[in-house]
Structure formats: C-alpha cells, structure tokens
Amino acid sequence: MILVLDIGNSAAKAGLWDGQCLVRSGRVATPEELDELLLGNAPSTARHAVEAVGAVSVVPARNDGWIAWVMAATGKQPVFFTAQSRLPFRMLYETPDTLGADRVAAAVGAWRAPDRKPGQAALVVDAGTALNMELVLAEGAYVGGVIAPGPELMRRALSAGTAQLPLIPLSDPGGFTGASTEKALQSGVMNGFATMARGLLDGLLREAGVARTDVFVAATGGWAPWLAERLDGIDEVRPDLVLEGVAALVENGMDA
After folding, report:
1. How far, in whole angstroms, is CA 168 from its chain's centroid?
2. CB count, 10 Å around CB of 213?
3. Which of 82, 86, 117, 252 has its CA 20 to 30 A from that of 55?
4. Residue 102 annotated to the active site
C-alpha cells in the first residue's frame, strides 16, 4: 500500500493506493484525521501495510509538520516530488523551479491514466480556485499550459474591484441573459468560465498542432463535473488525478 499526499494551503488530500486504484481518499488537516484515513477497518495492520509515502506540496513551510505526522503514523519517510524530480516525460518548462508540484503530479496522472491510448498527448484541465491546464505531447514532453482564474476568484474580483457589485453565490445561471444584477453576475462568471476554458483548451491544442482525436483530456478539481457537462473536449473526470500521479511516481521508483 502507498500513502499519497497532496498538501495544499489550508489542508491536504490523502489517499491509499493498492497498486491498481485508490482504495480510500479524503481531506486531512490534523494528525487524527490522517490516522482515521489510514486505519479504516484494520487498525492493527494499517501502519505495516504502508510500504512507501509520496507527496507533493505547494506550501513547503508546512512540509516538516507533515513529515512528523507521517513518520508517527506509518514509520515511513515521505518522498516529496517536484518539477526537478525524475519524471516519465521530458520537462520543457522554462522555469521548472516555479512550476507547482501539484501541476506536475496532475500531468503525470493524466499521462499514466488507464484510458490514455498509446500515441496520444495528455491534457489536464484542473478546474478549482484557479483554472490550470497542463499539456504533455505524445512524444513525452511537458511543454507548459495555462493558469487562469476560476469562478471563486472571478466573483471576488468583481465585488472587491467595484463599488456596487455584490459578492454573489456561485450557481448555474441556467442561461446567458441575467434579468437581475445577481443573475447577470452569475451568467458572466459561470458562462465566462466555461467559455474561457473552451477557448484555452482549443488554443493550446491548435498551437501545439495536436488534433482533438490525438489527445486524452482529464479534468479534475471541484468544478470539473460542472465543466465537463459543458465542454465536449473532456474525456474523463478524475477527482483524484493529483494523487494518482503521485502514486505513479512512487511506483516507478522515481525519487525526488
């Protein structure tokens, strides 16, 4: 069993990988929650079942705390992966030291996804607080992607940057024409988000010379299911794509 971690700003997502799939996953913010995820229904064997621990982190200042938690829970030292780690593809990003480890792991997850066909490129659409896209060409080269605001950032920017626009709740507008200020904002944010994602996806593939049939597109993040219903180009929604990528790195013995 492999324990995999995606350490974010407020909490982390953790999972247990059995060699085929994640058998358990969830958000953890305390040592107790990590123990609960590990123990499950087999408290006497959980510690010994973990053979390795892999992690990505966007908050390096918190890594020491997580190392202590993981060591106490499993007795294993976690391996942290970055863009400078040994990867299953070439890294052509001009500034790999600024490339988020979670973006790297998501790209690995899409590249190693069971449904990606041989000879296909891999494209990640991570629709969360930000909209991130990562492109790995079919020949095995990570060339970069896109970072844009997600719906939450859009709605907050509109409210904070104007005198009279309210901070609206996020919901599906059900159409384009907003008959009230709140509905007009919802339309602009949500329809704008979907339209932006569609344009960016098409632009990335067009610029790289990749035909739609020659790429596997995996969506992840909190808005992925909503976006997948509105974008024809998404092949699969994989909520745990980052954790799957970390597991692939650990399994292949790719040390940081």
Report:
1. 26
2. 7
3. 117
4. yes
Domains identified in the chain and CATH numbers: 2-82+247-251 (3.30.420.40), 114-237 (3.30.420.40)
Q: pTM for this structure? A: 0.92
Per the CB < 8 A criterion, the answer to whether 134 and 110 are in contact is yes
Per-residue pLDDT band at 35 (split at 50, 70, 90): confident
Smallest CA-to-CA distance from 16 within 47, 57, 44 is with 47
Phi, psi of 135 (to 5 degrees): -120, 125
Tens-digit pLDDT profile for residues 55-105: 999 999 999 999 999 999 899 999 999 999 999 999 999 999 999 999 999
Residue 188 backbone dihedrals phi, psi, to 5 degrees: -65, -45
- Is residue 256 over pLDDT 50? no
**What does the DSSP 8-state code read for residue 77?**
P
Is the Cα dihedral 12, 125, 234, 215 positive or negative?
negative
For residue 117, the one-letter residue type is K
Give the separation between CA 61 and CA 18, rounded to whole angstroms. 29
Mean pLDDT of the chain: 92
- How far apart are alpha carbons 59 and 126 in whole angstroms? 19
- Per DSSP, 27 falls in state E
Q: Distance between CA atoms of 190 and 150, rounded to whole angstroms?
A: 9
Q: Which of 6, 102, 126, 240 is catalytic?
A: 102
